[in-house]
């Protein structure tokens, strides 16, 4: 008898197989004397489509809404059907007496395994591998401490509720709004509130009217100051004449220092990285998108084994890591950070405190830190080096002393007017040493030696004309912060930690949410900024406040977190989602706005017609030669599917997404007519360059249809 290990990806399966000494490669799995290692390829099992409950749901019609099945059903993912069959056969095999779930240790990883387990009708006992590092030592230690799979039931219920609630809101909301307004309008439980955050900011910027103002800057020889109204604490002057009057009044007059305050400010080291904070910093420093940062982090975790599990929402470590900290610091020193590690290596005891070690604030995984695996940075890509550098410096910084400086604020009174001067004087760089220009930071303040009561002549003054500025547009760094805090952009790290459980989405899903609202045409990237399109703004205009509310979505995410911790009944949550789904349909019908989307025609979008525009035939089905190829919201399919025809091509399958293209109606028309089509402007994931690829129809061994490259373009 053997134990079956199910990993989430082939690459992870190979790492586990190496540690467990499994060397016999089979089709879809690797076998050893005691273990068989197999893998999913993402989600092998997905939720059934509406028409698989009732053929009436194939047609988008208000009369069939809301679609709320008594039980949401599962099915194999057509794109990975062959691997599902392999995994299922192994799970039910008589030579397997126990299963080990080794999918990613998180909510979605748990869902991937449980859905396979449920659809395969497997009843064998299973254990859970829960690791934060894919190093050999990390995997080996994980297998020495396997846990009963039932210990993660609550996590599965949370993941299941997330999956089913997204299906219910997405299917019903998308159909209701698309039918009513005659345009394909994808709706999402999380994506719609995310869009609203961007739209609200863009509208605020559009409505902003800049105003001119003036400032008077004075030069006292060895220091300068800005005119200020002390009562209002305001330096802006609303007219050029008033600014001129102030300048003429004070010029060459003697000033007296009436107030001098020197305050010591202590800035503690930042917390360790969770995924959202890492995405934010990499966007600010390198311009990487949230998705790109996640991809690089996954490479550092899976391929390089250089960092711990990246899809974490915690910024703390657990007590069991304390004995490893010194050796980890020494290892990082050998990678080119000796300048910084040497200071810590001299310490008799590391300054471990609750800002670093806090078991109560670690749920699924601890913060992202380097692993103890020896690495060669010269073999890393530039992007991998950049991201690893952020993580390594942050890890070292938490053990450094506080950054301390004097904040100096001084008021000089001249001829009845006041001028404010302020500077900072570094006392101790502390953790800033890892980030700062030391010469700039330690430059001596010009104000520090001035005392209250001293006098200086105002030698010259100049007037600067300025304009008020609108709020900044959202870039990904700002948006990630707002998503994490349910629409409240907060800089204070302590407060952010308290509000994290009320965020929109999770660290693992926020990047895909951003990419989703871009792919459906609601948002565009312009430089680093994310700007809503006309379609996106119109969508927010027509959706109910409840559907687009970041706060409500944040409360749902908090409820899912409670379910994962066993503190909330999953059924109660889903009942609330069911009521909300019905509300969406009623609201669309009762509160239709006079908004027209591009492509609208009189025969589309009216409740009386109750149909979508997808059902115009593209051509004869090349598979059955009888049915007609039709367009659906997500794919192209045969009208004879009910009679068993398996022709189907997804608009955005894994391969298409990889090359940043979508299958269009024109492309499918050429495919079914000519069997081949040239797709122009595909983007190479390796070089980011564009190329043209020839693709042709392909029938898989299980009868399903799709496409493949004919000219080696897949290697780009």
TrEMBL record:
Enzyme Commission number, as recorded: 5.6.2.1
UniProt-listed GO biological process terms: DNA recombination; DNA repair; DNA topological change
Transmembrane segments: none
Domain Toprim positions: 2-135
Catalytic activity: ATP-independent breakage of single-stranded DNA, followed by passage and rejoining
Family: Belongs to the type IA topoisomerase family.
Official protein name in the record: DNA topoisomerase
């Amino acid at each position: 008898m053997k134990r079956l290990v199910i990993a989430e990806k082939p690459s992870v399966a190979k790492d586990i197989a190496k540690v467990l000494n499994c060397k016999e490669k089979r089709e879809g799995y690797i076998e050893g004397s005691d273990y068989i290692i197999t893998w999913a390829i993402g989600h092998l099992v997905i939720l059934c489509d509406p028409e698989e409950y009732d053929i009436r749901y194939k047609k988008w019609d208000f009369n069939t809404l809301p679609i709320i099945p008594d039980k949401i059903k599962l099915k194999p993912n057509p794109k990975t059907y062959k691997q599902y069959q392999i995994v299922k056969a192994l799970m039910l095999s008589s030579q397997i007496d126990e299963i080990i779930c080794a999918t990613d240790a998180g909510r979605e990883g748990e869902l991937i395994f449980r859905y396979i387990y449920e659809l395969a009708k497997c009843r064998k006992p299973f254990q859970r591998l829960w690791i934060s590092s894919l190093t050999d030592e990390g995997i080996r230690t994980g297998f020495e401490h396997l846990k009963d799979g039932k210990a993660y039931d609550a996590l599965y219920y949370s993941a299941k509720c997330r999956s089913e609630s997204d299906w219910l809101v997405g299917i019903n909301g998308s159909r209701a709004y698309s039918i009513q307004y005659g345009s394909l309008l994808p709706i999402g439980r999380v994506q719609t509130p995310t869009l609203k955050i961007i739209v609200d900011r863009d509208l605020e910027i559009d409505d902003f009217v800049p105003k001119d103002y003036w400032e008077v800057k004075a030069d006292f020889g060895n220091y300068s100051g800005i005119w200020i109204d002390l009562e209002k604490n305001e330096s802006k002057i609303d007219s050029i004449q008033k600014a001129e009057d102030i300048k003429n009044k004070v010029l060459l007059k003697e000033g007296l220092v009436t107030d001098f305050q020197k305050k010591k400010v202590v800035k503690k080291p930042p917390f360790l990285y969770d995924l959202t904070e890492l995405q934010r910093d990499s966007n600010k420093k390198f311009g990487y998108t949230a998705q790109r940062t996640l991809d690089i982090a996954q490479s550092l975790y899976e391929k390089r084994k250089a960092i711990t599990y990246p899809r974490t929402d915690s910024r703390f470590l657990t007590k069991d890591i304390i004995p490893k900290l010194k050796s980890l610091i020494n290892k990082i020193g050998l990678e080119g950070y000796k300048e910084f590690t040497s200071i810590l290596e001299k310490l008799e005891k590391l300054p471990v405190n609750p800002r670093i070690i806090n078991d109560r604030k670690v749920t699924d995984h601890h913060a992202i830190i380097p692993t103890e695996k020896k690495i060669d940075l010269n073999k890393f890509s530039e992007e991998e080096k950049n991201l690893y550098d952020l993580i390594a410096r942050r890890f070292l910084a938490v053990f450094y002393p506080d950054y301390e400086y004097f904040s100096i604020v001084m008021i000089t009174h001249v001829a009845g007017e006041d001028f404010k001067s302020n500077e900072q004087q570094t006392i101790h760089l502390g953790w800033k040493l890892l980030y700062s220009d030391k010469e700039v930071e330690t430059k001596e303040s010009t104000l520090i030696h001035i005392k209250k009561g001293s006098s200086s002549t105002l030698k010259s003054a100049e007037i600067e004309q300025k304009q008020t500025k609108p709020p900044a547009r959202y870039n990904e760094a700002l948006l990630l912060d707002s998503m994490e805090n349910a629409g409240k952009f907060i800089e204070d790290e302590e407060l952010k930690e308290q509000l994290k459980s009320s965020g929109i989405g999770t660290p693992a899903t926020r990047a895909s949410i951003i990419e989703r609202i871009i792919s459906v045409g609601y948002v565009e990237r312009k430089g680093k900024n994310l700007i809503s399109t006309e379609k996106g703004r119109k969508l927010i205009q027509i959706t109910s406040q409840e559907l687009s509310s970041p706060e409500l979505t944040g409360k749902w995410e908090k409820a899912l977190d409670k379910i994962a911790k066993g503190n909330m009944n999953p059924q109660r949550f889903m009942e609330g989602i069911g009521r909300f789904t019905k509300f969406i349909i009623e609201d669309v019908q009762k509160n239709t706005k006079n908004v027209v989307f591009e492509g609208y025609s009189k025969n589309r979008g009216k409740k009386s017609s109750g149909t979508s525009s997808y059902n115009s035939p593209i051509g004869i089905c090349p598979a059955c030669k009888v049915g007609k190829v039709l367009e659906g919201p997500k794919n192209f399919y045969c009208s004879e599917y009910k009679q068993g025809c398996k022709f189907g091509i997804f608009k955005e399958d894994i391969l298409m997404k990889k090359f940043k293209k979508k299958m269009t109606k024109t492309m499918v028309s050429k495919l079914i007519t000519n069997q081949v089509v040239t797709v122009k402007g595909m983007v190479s994931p390796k070089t980011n360059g564009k190329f043209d690829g020839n693709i042709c129809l392909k029938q898989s061994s299980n009868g399903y249809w799709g496409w493949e490259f004919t000219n080696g373009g897949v290697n780009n």
